[in-house]
Amino acid sequence: MVAMETVTNSDCYALDEETGMYVDLRETDAGLKYLYDNGISLKVSGIIRPKEDAVSTMLSGSIGYTSALTEYIIEQSKDSAAVEAQLKDPSTDIFTGLPFQESTADLTDTQKETAFREYISGLDENGKAEAYVQIMSIPTQEQIDEAVSQSVESMTRADMEEMLYQGLSQQAGLSESEIREYVSAMSDNDLSKLFTQIAQEQFRTQYAAQVQEEMNSMSTQQLSAALDMMMERYTTEQCASYYDEVLIFSESSYEDNLQKLGYVDLDNPSSINIYASSFENKEVIEQAIADYNAEADDLEQIQYTDYVGLMMSSVTSIINAITYVLIAFVAVSLIVSSIMIGVITLISVQERTKEIGILRAIGASKRNVSSMFNAETLIIGFTSGTLGVLITYLLCIPINMILHHFTGINALNAYLPPGIAVVLILISMALTLFSGIIPSRSAAKKDPVVALRTE
After folding, report:
1. How many angstroms separate the CA atoms of 167 and 179, rounded?
2. What pLDDT is recorded for position 128?
3. pLDDT single digits (tens) 381-422
4. For residues 68 and 403, what is the distance between their CA atoms, to the nearest angstrom?
5. Measured between alpha carbons, how far is 144 from 241 in angstroms, rounded to an integer?
6. Residues 6+ apart with CB under 8 A from 291
7. 8 Å CB contact between 251 and 257
């Protein structure tokens, strides 16, 4: 047994009483030592590693935990102070104190106003001065529309194209020929919209630079006092607008923070792994999922990946390709064999012409002669098919010994089922019968008089 220590993600974060934020203890040597000294003691029960000569393995080199340990760590993380603090306030980042950008979409204007006023009241004098300059640097929509409309009305399409050439060459980094081709292909409406957007951005930048230049002469105290006075005049709509423009949001998200803290909700898993004990059970699971998806909405349908099915599909494709090649070789062999049987039967007919004449002379009909040769070909087919099956059964013994020796899989065996063996014999008889049809008919059509004269 080997002892080791583990530390949960949530234990790595502690509350800073001065800032009210949670800090990462791993960023300091003292914090690391504290985590190591207070870690969860574990015991290594065993080490599993693949054989040196193994071609493929199921082990990925990670540490395997028991389900009891996994559930214990999940419960420990769920009960930690950091996780509880983040769950209690889903709109604020517990590491930075900043609001999450994603949470603002569900806020009403009144809630944004309240959050904005709380944010401003928590700033110091320098922070209020910076916020006031930033607020005053935001032009109203009426100012933007008026400035842009004046510039657009006084410009022709050629003037707009020329200004777009200059603006896009600086922002997009494209060549002049590419920009001119792109702008020239625009319709008047699309060109006007693009020019309006660029003009609005330029006006905002120029307006902010002008305001900041004008306010450079004011002291920090004057700017802070001006903001306090203006806060009493701002309407709900203005506060909601400034909330989106002025507030600094967290670069993280609520889900990212919970993941960083190691929080796991067992009732809401992101994915589930299902292991079937057999291929039959795997098909039962697939059918159950298909039945559920048939009645569920598109957003509620279960999406799954059948890894075994993908691997088996690849293996099946390879096996099918090999099978088709073998079938082609076998087909060629069967065709050649059938032709040879037909040739041999035809030669036999030619050599036994006098015998055929005697049979016809003593009363044998054309059908009797044809049946005789067909019976001979059937006997040949039965004998050859039976001999091939017996040889196959005998060859399976050394083949299985070789497979067991090189693969080490005793369950892997070459085997010819009795039913398949009977089918192969019947196929052999059918092929030989088909090959002997033409020669047998040729023998039945011979004239008895001509046949008797043949030496």
Report:
1. 10
2. 86
3. 889 889 988 998 899 888 888 888 887 777 778 888 888 889
4. 42
5. 15
6. none
7. no
User: DSSP string covering 201-261, please?
Assistant: HHHHHHHHHHHHHHHTTS-HHHHHHHHHHHHTT--HHHHHHHHHHHPPPBSS-HHHHHHHT
Q: Are 377 and 341 in contact (CB under 8 A)?
A: yes
pLDDT number for residue 390: 92
Do residues 133 and 211 touch, judged by C-beta distance below 8 A? yes
Write out the two tokens for 159: 């003037």
Give the pLDDT band of residue 96 (cuts 50, 70, 90).
Answer: confident
Burial of 345 (0-12, 13-18, 19+ CB in 10 A): buried
Q: What is the pLDDT of residue 2?
A: 58
**Longest C-alpha distance within the chain, in Å?**
139
Tell me what pLDDT residue 3 has.
Answer: 62
Sign of the four-CA dihedral 384, 385, 391, 394:
negative
3-state secondary structure of 43: strand
Per the CB < 8 A criterion, the answer to whether 431 and 336 are in contact is no
Tokens encoding 265: 């909700």
pLDDT at 451 over 60: no
pLDDT in tens, 157-190: 777 777 766 666 665 556 667 777 777 777 778 7
The CA distance from 303 to 81, in Å, is 35
> Residue 99 in 3-state DSSP?
strand
In eight-state DSSP terms, residue 40 is E
| 133/211 Cα distance (integer angstroms) | 8
Cα distance between residue 242 and residue 236, in whole Å: 10
